[in-house]
Amino acid sequence: MARLADYFVLVAFGPHPRGSGEGQGQILQRFPEKDWEDNPFPQGIELFCQPSGWQLCPERSPPTFFVAVLTDINSERHYCACLTFWEPAEPTQEAASAEDAADGEEELEDGGRMRLSPSAPAPASQLFAPKTLVLVSRLDHTEVFRNSLGLIYTVHVEGLDVSLESVIGNLLTCTIPLAGGSQRTISLGAGDRQVIQTPLTDSLPVSCCSVALLFRQLGITNVLCLFCAALTEHKILFLSRSYQRLADACRGLLALLFPLRYSFTYVPILPAQLLEVLSTPTPFVIGVHAAFQAETQELLDVIIADLDGGTVTVPECVHIPPLPEPLQSQTHSVLSTVLDPELELADLAFPPPTVPASSLKMQDKELRAVFLRLFAQLLQGYRWCLHIVRIHPEPVIRFHKAAFLGQRGLVEDDFLMKVLEGMAFAGFVSERGVPYRATDLFDELVAHEVARMRADESHPQRVLRHVKELAEQLYKNENPYPAVAMHKVQRPAEASHLRRAPRPFPRLDEGTVQWIVDQAMAKMQGAPPAVRAERRSTVPSGPPMTAILERSSGLHANSARRLEVVRNCISYVFEGKMLEAKKLLPAVLRALKGRAARRCLTQELHLHVQQNRAVLDHQQFDFVVRMMNCCLQDCTSADEHGIAAALLPLVTAFCRKLSPGVTQFAYSCVQEHVVWSTPQFWEAMFYGDVQTHVRALYLEPPEDRPPTQVGEALAQEEPPSALDVASEQRRLWPTLSRAKQQELVQKEESTVFSQAIHYASRMSYLLLPLDASKSRLLRERAGLGDPESASNSLVTNSMAGSVAESYDTESGFEDAETSDVAGAVVRFINRFVDKVCTESGVTSDHLKGLHVMVPDIVQMHIETLEAVHRESRRLPPIQKPKLLRPRLLPGEECVLDGLRVYLLPDGREEGAGGSAGGPALLPAEGAVFLTTYRVIFTGMPTDPLVGEQVVVRAFPVAALTKEKRISVQTHVDQFLQDGLQLRACTFQLLRMAFDEEVGSEGAELFRKQLHRLRYPPDIKGTFAFASGATHTPGRPGRAAKDKGPSLRTLSRNLMKNAKRTIGRQHITRKKYSPPSWEHRGQPPAEDQEDEIAVSEEAEPSTLTPSAGLKPADRLTLSSLVERACCRDYQRLGLGTLGSSLSRAKSEPFRVSPVNRMYAICRSYPGLLIVPQSVQDNALQRVSRCYRQNRFPVVCWRSGRSKAVLLRSGGLHGKGVVGLFKAQNAPSPGQSQADSSSLEQEKYLQAVVSAMPRYADASGRNTLSGFSSAHLGSHGKWGSIRVSGRSGGPGVGVDVGSRLAGRDVLGPPQPNGAPPDSGFLRPQRAALYIIGDKAQLKGVRPDPLQQWELVPIEVFEARQVKASFKKLLKACVPGCPAAEPGPASYLRSLEDSEWLTQIHKLLQVSVLVVELLDSGSSVLVSLEDGWDITTQVVSLVQLLSDPFYRTLEGFRLLVEKEWLSFGHRFSHRGAHMLAGQSSGVVPIFLQFLDCVHQVHLQFPMEFEFSQFYLKFLSYHHASRRFRTFLLDSDYERIELGLLYEEKGERRGQQACRSVWEHVDRLSKKTPVFYNYMYAPEDAEVLRPYSNVSNLKVWDFYTEETLAEGPPYDWELARGPPEPPEEERPDSSAPQSRRRVVWPCYDSRPRAQPDAISRLLEELQRLETELGRPPERWKDTWDRVKAAQRLEGRPDGRGTPGSLLASTVPHHRRSLGVYLQEGPAGSTLSLSLDSDQSGGSSASSSRQAARRSTSALYSQFQTAESENRSYEGTLYKKGAFMKPWKARWFVLDKTKHQLRYYDHRVDTECKGVIDLAEVEAVAPGAPTMGAPKTVGEKAFFDVKTTRRVYNFCAQDAASAQQWVDRIQGCLSDA
């Protein structure tokens, strides 16, 4: 029985002590005045009576009632029912609030009342003060409290004839039963009657309607959100204007949490004075009046639920994990069905009559039932994870969280993880884990209804039925007696509060009340205590748990076959069949990724342990350890699946003898796993073992039963379980004698104690490393040295710490390192022992004893390990694979010999056998070699099932862009130390882990040497120079009297002169003539004529100083003439190099030697093309206006339009810009800068007038909307307009924005625009200057000028660099993508913006091509003139001039534009130590990518193949050749390189020039040649440049692991030749199948194209015949010529010529692939169209049409053939003709024997009709028959016309032919 009310209190308004306007509560009276012994009076009640503060009121308000909840220090809740009413204030109270009134503040008070203000209607005398009646109780009976206080108030107001003292006395003495469903009627002696029902089960919460109201106010989603927040320990704040609503909401939320109890701060109504409680760091559920909403705004981590507005606000910083699916969605749908039953019927065509909705009370129970089911599903099987650690004197129970999460399949689930770690769940375990106690609804549900709930999941109606059943039980629990007698309680009359009360609430007589209480107490003492005995029973455990969602384990679904493989492998190991085991091992290691296989392994290994020990030999030991390591490497630190737990007893059982008395156990080889250093794992293991032993104490073990296996997490196999045993023991406990009880307690404690000792040794086994030097790694990972990270214990570490410290100081170890390890391990074990022993109730004496023992245990183990370590090092090492030495180039030397490494897989999944299929070539085991040229890995796959494939990955040292250290995942075999990731700009990546034998010193040495080779201090240190140096055969020394200087001295003199003359004007009148190459050795004769015509109109001040040039200088000039530039200028007719002094004056341009000393511009070539009219001395001044002195020079002239292409650096600030900005003509007193600008203007004018078509023209400078018919119609460029007149200051905006990627379309084309693509309107500028937008900002063009600026936006070198970095990472990712599939690759490719840059380059180039084609000249003047300028200028020439699309022309183009015009290869490639910081900026690679894009669109226009472009891309970065080193011709001369290539004929040594290498290779193999080359004359290419038309170059993505990059041709091995099969019968030749693996084999080499194959075959046959093999090029040219001749008479041509002639001109020029459109239609459609451009004449069209039809007829005949039997036969020709081998085909269908010249011939040469055959008989050899064939190989076929003589390859073959032919005849 319990008291209904503990205290009755009367609280009234009192003035505030500090005199502030607000009042405060004063307790007038309380009953009883003495505190109850069992329940002291709660402090602070007066605050809770008026939570918003005590204030006077201007008018009477109706009485209010609410229940506040206070929590005392023992976590007991006190319910304070408060009924407040208002009485007229006494004068003292009014005086107190007078100041308040004077302030005139209007503040809302609770319930919306106003404070007194000057405008209040009531006079100041009429103020009302609140007074509160408070009832304090530990029971929650809200309605009873409301009625009781209401009765007291009614007695007072209505003036009933009842003494208030007796009513209150009766109230305080009323007692009711606690639980058990009893009912009690009470009366307070005022003619009232109330019935109190107690719930059936005390543990189930009572909710009335609070849950249903909460759902109505907030909705399903919000309530679920609050539910999850409360469970995961977040702060929750409710807001409402009603106190009762706040209390109900808090009560409802807590009712939902059942069976968990909320154990944090719980204040349903928080007074205003205590609002600072909201900033507490602990979780809470608090309700606050909505008036204080503003104060809650700055709370950052509080979830605010507004009950009146129906919203829940979750701050950004708070993450509430949702329920695990599918429970979240299932709960949501059931809740919506309960709350809105008509939802299911809403869509029905004929809805049934509406079902009456449940009453609010019933709906409340249904909602609770849904959450009860949810908890049963979440916690199903929780009892299987309870560990009974102690049974007596009190049960100690621990919960194995990891096992629970693992078996439920919710390891990753954030929600359940947080719930299990929360305080509420800890309380749940200690309260509900007890095996013998009273059970309730939840226990039955979780034990018996789980199967039903799983079955009902997909049937909503059945779920609803279950919910209703549970709701009934919950309702019955609260209302056990439905037909209760009606309450009878008097209430005050309506509006009684407005009546003037006869008197204030009276002061009560304490004595009377106390006397009533004392009377009742005396009665109670006499009566026997009415305590109902609890019905206790064993709590049912329910079925074992299942996963919450049956997930398939994907890749490793463990079939029975896999488990069989594991079992077989283990039995082979223990039977000593090592070879068999070795075969199975890889499959086992793969299978062990799956959980079932790991469990199977542990079970199988258990079978081989007898008496806790199993001694193995070395091989067996290695196998077992490998499998254990493989098992453990996927274990997380929590070991959810119990794998580490099952292996723990095994690692101390398996061992091997190293020497007499020294045994090594498996634990010393499996320490490198994180699970061993996790305290939670050890605790769970310890408790599991203790449970097993404690259970064994109470079971009488029968003799025949084997001892229980130690270490099983739960002894669940044999009944009874540990919980059952514990339950039985708890039942018997009260019946045992005191001595017996004592004995059992001691037995249990000694069991725990002995297990603690056992675990201290086990932990020392797995934490102390075999080799103390490795300890540091282990400790860092485990956090052993850090008490905070290692211990999750609430127990203090003081004792463990102090013992460990004393141990450290006194141990007296010599070796500080070992002592450090030992100390860390001792501290770790001590913390563990402290925690588990305190929790398990071990006495402090025992605990102290343990702390003393731990250091000794550790010390003994260290001594044992020293011997084991010493002996284990004497073991023969594991046989590692032999190192494979790589093949080296001539001159390449090894710097570091093979360091053993593992090559790890990176983000390219092909190598690891990803989605593309193929074997897992990586990881591979081998060695890395560092040579003077490359970093090379060679090795073999670690997976023996892949085969004996050699894996090679290599890249040039010079290509290294980034090197970073990586931490490597532990490998299966050994523990690997550090790793290194090397990334190269040739798109290679090496992820390596060094073998332990290499050591950190070896790895560091490798890094240093690599760095030294990558960044040599100067160019002489690069491979291209160093390699030749040692191998160059020495030339005989020159005679001392040799007159001519050597080229080296020549270059040195040249440099001296250059340095002397830089910055000085050169003046010379003397014409000079360099000697020809033949006379190079002797000084030239003085009277030789000049080969370079220098302008004769030289002003006195212009040319070089002088009495004459030194011979060396002349020699230089002669060499310059030989350079690529000059050869090209000669070809273009830009400055003809004649031998006469005179020059036709009509030639507009000349070759100027002004820069021959590199004095004007160091980065330009020695000879430049300038306008005829410009003098050399003016050039010096012009050059000052341009960056790097790179003034405009001509580099190409169009053969058709005679327009020229010029290039220069960007302008300095005062260049053209200043000139255009100047409004007036320059004044006579000019500054230097103005004069140079004038020079510049003159220079540009000279360029314009040098163009013949524009010499007289004075056209306006408009770049009008040029377009060809097809370009206009496709809207590719639309029109590009920049009108000087209409554009005003914003000159080149349109063009610039076009090129920046925005489509600004001009006006449409006039209808009469001719289709000729080269046509532009006559109003166009003579010269367009393409410049950087930023540079030409604000430029105003002068209308009189004949040039026009086209400002464009271009990217900078740093953008190229950034883009290239991202491209590298996209194409060669360092680690696998987070999401599989192409999406992430494409996204990273797009992020790199590489293709966007290529699009811009192509776009600008096509614009320039169009301008040049239309007859305007173009000056490209971007950045410094050596990066993007070079790219654009080269591309323009490539697109405009077919010569540059040949092998020779492309070489010339690169030599001229890139090498001579000074692209900074060394700087951009970061070749030297100085350039290390600037990084790699692959400008040249970008250009080659653009060429590759054009090549793809016009495959027939290029003589060179795609491989040629890849070859140059690889070697421009490789530093193998000298071609792409250094930054300009000036630097090359300084090193004496420039002329050496041609001048010195060296011996057989490594090629120094890439071109020479290409030439040599081209003679041997057609790899650089494009067989589809069929150019059209003077074809200008206009490629599509949209990103959608661009392809990612396969150079970036392909790799060949069989041989490394294929660009060092000497190293690439040919395919292994399959042996020729000996074919006894000459039936069809057998196929030679070869498996080609992705990313391993080179596909072009494994399966060459048809032409390469034929050329190879031809070469092979020639070799067999003993003839010297012909060069492939000669053969190819001969074949092409023959085909051309053949194609003429009958109109049939080869496919090559056919393609060349049939594709219409404009289709080809747009670069459309031939495969476009429906198959086969392109040719015929395009032939019939009349749109082919002017180049294809009608005659060629006719021929093409004929050849097409011939082609089709060929294919049709071939298709319609039916070949029954075929082969080669010799046939004797007609009379006097020789024997010839022909290909014969026997056709049953057509009844013919046809013959062809050879097998692939499609044209039949003759037919023998079988209808005419009379006989087939053996024949005899005749004259001229093949000699090598036997007589029986001959046979004759006699027809009605003649006899055919045949000869087969042998007798068997002849017989077969005869049989076949006769068979055909008989069939007919």
What's a quick, concise take on this entry?
The chain has 1868 residues and is an alpha+beta fold.
- What's the gyration radius in Å? 50 Å
Q: Could you estimate the helical fraction of the residues in percent?
A: 25-40%
Mean pLDDT: 76
Gap from first CA to last CA? 116 Å
Which regions contain 5 or more consecutive residues with pLDDT less than 50? 98-123, 550-557, 702-717, 775-783, 785-818, 970-976, 1030-1051, 1057-1112, 1138-1143, 1214-1231, 1255-1322, 1541-1549, ...
Q: Biggest sheet: strands side by side, in what order?
A: 25-24-23-22-28-27-26
By secondary-structure content and strand pairing, the structural class works out as alpha+beta
Characterization of the model:
The protein is an alpha+beta fold. The strands form 12 sheets. The protein has a 7-stranded antiparallel sheet with strand order 25-24-23-22-28-27-26. A 7-stranded antiparallel sheet has the order 41-40-39-38-44-43-42, with helices on one face. The protein has a 5-stranded antiparallel sheet with strand order 3-2-6-5-4. Strand 38 (about 1765-1770) and strand 39 (about 1780-1785) form a beta hairpin. The longest helix is centred in the middle third of the chain and has 31 residues, at about 845-875. About 20% of the residues have low confidence.
